[in-house]
Amino acid sequence: MPTGDMPAGDALPLTAHTPGRQPTCQLLKGLTRGEGERRRRSAAAAMSDPALKVESLSVCASENRKRHHSDDYDNPALIVRRGQDFKIRLRLNRPLRKGDPLCVQLAVGAQPLQSKETLVLIPLQQTQLSGAWTATLGANQGLEYEVLIKSPPNAAVGKYTLTVTDKGSYTYVPPDKDVYLLFNPWCKEDVVYLEEEDKRQEYVLSDTGYLYLGSFNRIEGIPWNFGQFEEGVLDCCFYLLDKIGMKQTTRKDAVKIARAMSAAVNIQDDAGVLIGNWSGDYSNGTPPSYWTGSSAILQQYYKTKRPVRYGQCWVFSGVLTTVMRCLGVPARSITNFDSAHDTEDNLTIDVFFNRAGEMLNDISTDSIWNFHVWNDVWMKRPDLPEGYNGWQAIDATPQELSEGSYQCGPAPLKAIKNGDVHLVYDTKFVLSEVNADRIFWRVDNPNTPQQNMVKLRVDTMAVGKRISTKAVGKNLREDITSQYKHPEGSPEERRSLENALKMCLKPVEEVYSMVRPAMKVDFESKEVHLGSPVTLNITFSNNTTSVKTVTFSASYQLQTYDGNTVESIGSMSSEIIVQAESSAAVPVEIPADSYFKFLSKYNDELQVQVNVLGETKEGKEPLADYVVVHFTYPAIKVEMPDSVRAGEKFTCTFIFKNDTGVPMENTKLHVEGLGLFKLETFDEGNIKAGGIFASRVVCTASKLGERKIIAKITSDQISGITVERSITIT
């Protein structure tokens, strides 16, 4: 396509109008003398006019971006949202006359075609069809014309090239020719429309937030820089759509884009953004715990066009939130505590133990993760029956194949809650994550011909606890469990599971009901400061009117957050008498050196899992349960001003004391501040027990408003110490 003005020689020559003179004179025969004269003068003037050309075009980027809530993007181009008009100004070489065939043209790709919806032609002086792009002439000042261009609310999102053409040999290409078209949650006709402004601010425009990690009884909010407006992120999002081969006609569909992006963020099918790694060995990449935000990952991927090493579920979720918000789809990161991974399509999770109480990982691929982080996106579902609009679950962590690819969702939360698992997409899988039943098994003589499995008990309340996301407009956690499931044990909750089981490939024989056990094992535990012994009580409760004698075995294992036990660090066996309708406790203490020697072997945040297996002597009633104990870590102290003026330099000082009682090896400080500086890593070396370091970072205030700085400390022994501070730039 030619650029700039066409040379004068390429305009239609005057002689091209000569064949039209005779018919024009014939048409004038029936007119009065005065009317005919005016027509002749007009026709002559038209034939003597120069060919219509554009001398300049302004996309009014600053004005349009402000109206379209896109002025935060670190990208100088025109960025607008569909279903809402935007303004351009044309300066022509002569007045625009009725019948001038001038069109605004928007094109996508190397060979744009109207038949493939990669080429849009919008006439300036023609009545437009409903649902089509429109270009409306506004006021003009001399030869300068204002044009309001409006896309339909279901237009395909993408990066367009804007030109002006006469649909013939003339095309004008302005210097600022790139136009990015996004989804529009401010437009009532757009399927992603979100009514409340505070929610639009949170789920579309907020570029920082929190991801929730830990366990249901120890929830930790980790600050995360989503950074959807950072340099290169928008281009990366559209590059992903190109890379997975999404057709332009499909790019108007928010449901299909959400599903496609859940696949594009992982590498399993299309060499996408992130490589997942749960091995504990990250020697040839970045450990997942080192990341403080999404933009650094997307920028690296877009620059190198190679997948980034490495991510785990919260990193996948953080990146997917960034991608969806960047495209204009309201999105939030969701954490489900005690999250099930059902690999057998039966809505139950089988956990296996040997007689010593050690959990066996190699018998079943089912698991319960301490937490799993995925996403919700807000949209209508025109592909489903009424009643399923609103939040939809999507997940970029590669777990199970869906229609041949590692993608998940969008699954309507209302369908998940009510067990309507016949509705697309992957509703049954997400339902199992939040509401599967857990079955305990004892394996006698494992991995031998004499192997035998004994079902011990069913726990109907083990899965899907304290489902969390960041609250709207507040740095607080919001519990959204009720959006995903009915209250545990309620008739509605059991009915939902019963509905879902009808659609399972391997349904269990029954929907388990809640039964109060005669004997119950429980735990009284507290967080343990890293480097200290792990102490807790194992409590046995007797709900009968007779005395019970319990024989039990307890084992202590190190566990990763995805429920995988990696090291055994101790065990005990004992017997205890429990009086009728009372409880008895057994104290446990696990020395610090039994777990500390393994920490540097796994570059992950490890926990201690205590398993108990037992039975009563009197009735052989089985007992089985386990608890996860978390560590606490030393804090990072931050010294920095509360506010500075734009352009002013300021210093952030990060102070850390290692009070764990053991050395920290290969210690690193990772710091990132959106709108201030990109992710930086500083090598702090080995920090001896009781040692202190202080690092200073000098920044220059640039973007106005509140800015957040996130700092994280990692070492061979510790991977999860994080702090954030805010600064206001005026």
Automatic annotation (TrEMBL):
Residues annotated as domain Transglutaminase-like: 305-398
Recorded GO MF terms: metal ion binding; protein-glutamine gamma-glutamyltransferase activity
Binding-site residues for Ca(2+), renumbered to this chain: N435, D437, E488, E493
Record keywords: Acyltransferase, Calcium, Metal-binding, Transferase
PROSITE patterns, A to Z: TRANSGLUTAMINASES
InterPro entries named in the record: Ig-like_fold, Ig_E-set, Papain-like_cys_pep_sf, Transglutaminase, Transglutaminase-like, Transglutaminase-like_sf, Transglutaminase_animal, Transglutaminase_AS
Protein name, as recorded: protein-glutamine gamma-glutamyltransferase
Renumbered residue ranges of the record's region Disordered: 1-26
PANTHER family registered for this protein in UniProt: PROTEIN-GLUTAMINE GAMMA-GLUTAMYLTRANSFERASE, PROTEIN-GLUTAMINE GAMMA-GLUTAMYLTRANSFERASE 4
Cross-referenced Pfam families: Transglut_C, Transglut_core, Transglut_N
Top-level taxon in the UniProt lineage: Eukaryota
Organism: Polypterus senegalus
Similarity comment text for this entry: Belongs to the transglutaminase superfamily. Transglutaminase family.
Enzyme Commission number, as recorded: 2.3.2.13
Free-text remark on how the cofactor is bound: Binds 1 Ca(2+) ion per subunit.
Catalytic residues identified in the record: C313, H372, D395
Residue ranges of coiled coil: none
Cofactor(s) annotated in UniProt: Ca(2+)
